[in-house]
Amino acid sequence: MQVFLRKKRSGNIFVKKPDVGPDGLLVEIINSLRCPPTYAGGCLQSSEVIFTQVAVSADGDSIAAGDVHGNLFCVNLVKNRFHLVKHLSMPCSRISISLKRKTDMLVSLSDYSVRCFNTETQEQLACLRGHQTSIVNISVHSSKRYALITSSETASLWNLDTLERKRKLSIAQNVDLLAALFIPNSNSMLTCFKDNSMLVWDAESMDLKYELRSSQSLDVTYRVFTCNSDGSSVACAGKSNLIHIWDIPSQKIHRVLQLAPETKQVKQLEYLPKHLYPEEVLLAVCSNGVLRLIDIKESAEIWTIGTYEHKVVQISCAEAGSILACIMDSGNINVYEMDVIFKQIQASKLLEQKKMHEIEQQPRTRVTKVQRKATKIKDMITERVENSKTLSHVRLREILKEYGEFPEKYRTFIWKTILRLPENYDSYSALLNKGIHPAFAEIHKVYPIRSLKLLRVFQRLLSAVAYWAPVVTESTFLPTLAFPFAKLLQNNQLIAFEVVATILVNWTQKWFDFIPNPPLNILSLIENVFSYHDKELFQVTQVLLTENFMYQNTF
Questions:
Q1: Counting beta carbons within 10 angstroms of the beta carbon of residue 277, is it exposed (0 to 12), middle (13 to 18) or buried (19 or more)?
Q2: Are β-strands 104-109 and 114-118 bridged in parallel, bridged antiparallel, or unpaired?
Q3: Residue 221 per-residue DSSP state
């Protein structure tokens, strides 16, 4: 269901009782007049105004939203009403409505101030000043008496009962402050800096208690942080697809979550309330616009919201309710009922368990002794590879001698390790950007290949090798050498190129001494080997060597 705001200053949200879909979408809030786009000066002018900030109250009854024009809206889902709280002259940068008085709202503006409004009377109760840079975070204490307001240069502790500043934490000029937040169920606060340092302070005296420091170098540049509801752990992420879960009592990283490979950065993190799901769930807004729900205990992704076409930009969830609000890249706000989503997750788990039970109850097919032995050998090979911390050549040689082959699942990875391929994607991309080499523009006429995909892979592989080593275009054996690797590794073209390049560098260095003529030195060595080991074969190869057949078909 869609709801259009700005048609009037207040009104009803739902005309009829909303139907929540299987994806949990309750309503889509659009900040626009309910009219078609207009034309001005020959250009299409949209009437929509995008939302930039959203916040959900602690109980999930109300949603506060601010748009790019400085309009503040309050949407009450229980009373089925919305109204315009205030029209400001500038857009807001942060909103918080999880306060002691449900009618109060904290809003940070671009003039570095934080203003407190009453959503019912629409009055401004106070203006909190003292920051010289933009406000990056507002954290409210679990008692709802204090608010911690953070900018890049300082963090201020405010008393929300008296609306007075109680403490101010000054920061060194050479390190920017990313966030300062209260640790739930404690009298401590956590400050996170741009150099990955995290300090825990006493909220009353502002004395430093301890620092969260890893004994090993971190491979994640932290940018976003969040604490769980009982204050036992803090999740940190940033410019990586990894999420570190710190255990606050032990002051150590006790779990590392890895997101999908296409995730390059995590933009926002939130813990889901524990009453919604039996296990602890983390919400991660990724750089590709997908909101991922992660089961921390299982280290598994259980649900996603948003797609590449409809990206999630920002989220806010209720501390004790089941409402999740998401700002989409279209500027609209999607409101989700998390109870419905978790019912879908539980149903899918039960269905999967039922299928597994049915499979177990099916009569087992008779397995022959040969099949059982082959399966056992394959499992032993796989176990050895997986248990090897380092794929040493001695270990691999033992596996190869004992079983005669490497497991198919790991074969490409093993040979990539043996050949020590650099996987230099940047250099390979530079070669591909040069296009098809003129020497192989009509390779399909010499080597007719039915599969168009394989033909394109083969042509790109030959062209990349030709641009990398132009001398190979003078020879005739390159297509014969490269085709098996193009066919085997057509889904990993970088590896195919580096394998061919490795062979050329290590085993064909002397092949080009007499270009464009055949390598007489190599052919002489082959002739000597044949004449020594097999006289009859030597007589046959005399004709083949003179016809350059051996040179072209070495591989």
A1: middle
A2: antiparallel
A3: -
